[in-house]
## 1
Amino acid sequence: MPRGRAPGYNTQREQILARAADLFARQGYTATSMNQVALACGVSKPSLYHYVRDKYQLLVEIAQDHVARLNTLVAEVQVMPLPPADRVRLLIARFMEVYADAQAAHRVLTEDVKFLEPADQKRVLDAQRQVVAAFAQAIAEARPDLHATPLQKPVTMLLFGMMNWMFTWHQPGGKLTHAQMAPVVADLFFGGLAAVQLPVPQPAPAIKTPQRRRA
Amino acid sequence: MPRGRAPGYNTQREQILARAADLFARQGYTATSMNQVALACGVSKPSLYHYVRDKYQLLVEIAQDHVARLNTLVAEVQVMPLPPADRVRLLIARFMEVYADAQAAHRVLTEDVKFLEPADQKRVLDAQRQVVAAFAQAIAEARPDLHATPLQKPVTMLLFGMMNWMFTWHQPGGKLTHAQMAPVVADLFFGGLAAVQLPVPQPAPAIKTPQRRRA
DNA sequence: CCTACCGATCGGTAGG
DNA sequence: CCTACCGATCGGTAGG
């Protein structure tokens, strides 16, 4: 084992990742300069480069750390002995908790993944797909009639839509907290599942919604 | 009135906006260079500047045009004599139609609005709020018991979450078209509304979900 | 005089 | 750890 880093090294490093995630979330990866990151961290630019190889590595680690956190969460809930519907509800509650706690990293994961090089992008997207698959499986256990139907994946994605979108508009100081919204999302989702019609068999019947009318 | 532009001017201009929207959607506003925009349009950079004042103006017009389109759509549906629930369903169908048709502009609207200067950003966000308010009103007419409750706005945003999120993962060549998904979204939403519990009265009861267990 | 458009290069600033 | 500075590339515009 090589000689250790300074004691505060990892702490400092984690703080840098957090500050960088904040900046990337607000300004986007490309529009954020390493000077800004250094300034936000209270260190000089050369010091910053002591903790991170380059700007790109910041992006890679923020995205990978966050998606790994989501996978850990899913794994924890999967081993719990729970009725299927309760498992889905717990997954929703835990996800919204993490989203609220790591709003910046989550925004980076959803918006800046396009700046990752193919190999890194694949790693992150594969991990994300694993999370979605776990949700889809839990949903199918709670609603066996949906299992292996063409709607299993789409309704899972609609659930993610509700959860993910919340954090593009939800203000941390808002009236409704994530803890209050989680059961609302779960109720809306399960209540809605019961009402969803099973697949349209014909291939894209080109449903025409009325065009504008002329008087 | 000044002498007119060349006949193809407006056509060319619209094509430039469309190409720029594609590039901005795929690479982000900041990471896209005017050289790329010019290349994608098959014109030289000086020619490009003949059609647009500068890069920023591209962003402003893409965002404003798209949000204006959404407002036009809402206004059209609002004047139709329809039962409340049908109005919401038509709004959903029309929105997903526009999203599918203008996927690039929609992505720019949701992801690159942060690069707008305050005054322009306010204009766009105000227009967006108008669209959301129209949805919220239509929803409240379909479900009067929800009107003016703390949940009216949140459930409206959850609906937008489902619609908007679809287009961050939906492939144009996928199995399910937007026309097939629109009724699924509507069914899920209305079915779910019936199941949603009305507000938690106590202020943020800090629902604790279990932490990880140690064996 | 106008428009439309080229090749070449400007001043400033990015990551490093 | 800082000042200083690089090679490369940005958005935008000069002359012709």
## 2
Amino acid sequence: MAPTRHDLENCARGDAALTRAFTLLGKRWSGLLLGSLGAGPAGFRELSRAIDGVSDSVLSDRLAELTKAGLIARRVEEGPPVTVSYELTESGRALIPALDQISRWAEEHLPAPDELC
Amino acid sequence: MAPTRHDLENCARGDAALTRAFTLLGKRWSGLLLGSLGAGPAGFRELSRAIDGVSDSVLSDRLAELTKAGLIARRVEEGPPVTVSYELTESGRALIPALDQISRWAEEHLPAPDELC
DNA sequence: ATACTCGCTTCGGAAATCAAAGCGACAGCT
DNA sequence: AGCTGTCGCTTTGATTTCCGAAGCGAGTAT
């Protein structure tokens, strides 16, 4: 295969930072996961219930990704019983204002889905 | 089982608006596409070049989705030659500040990928 | 006439995501 | 001691999404 200049083109790219951000946020559930944790620490099962529709396997993947990226931290509380909780790191918390803004934007500009509650 | 019905949980769930937002933004390339258009109108080919890595088929899908959601508009300029350009609607423009904030966040909190340029 | 570019669409195959089941460790009954 | 349930995952196999490459019709350039 010819060495695509893919690598070279990467440089002059529009907004590199935005690209980096959406490597994480552009994946399904990442944003919502962070949003959920914005409300405070939570355990695995708690998150899987809070974020309706996500499967355990993907939730597990996302938690690993975001942990690796340094946005969330996994804390094991020695018991008994032993419990696991995930929480935002400082980096993660720094993103919350942006998510809030997106949330506010959605309220204003995204079709209101018949308030059933 | 406790009387916690799923229905109840649905209501008080995290943030419905954020969920709506990430139905769009949580898909690959959506965020970057909006970011690109934030710099001004652009044609299909222009976008496909600006957003490195996206395939024509997916770009086409995303443009359709975001157009349907009312974030971008497809304008056909009668020629000759006939040209097509996509641009942000007001709703779309309203999201740009949030994207900028995310971009700034990424610069601060996301691993600087060795400036190769 | 030949060879481009543009704005797509179509066609496989590869990757992401899904629901469901299972597992080990523990807790709460009885 | 059993039985049942919760928690934090992982595994399995099917479905959905995404990708790269090719193609197409229309127009432009040489």
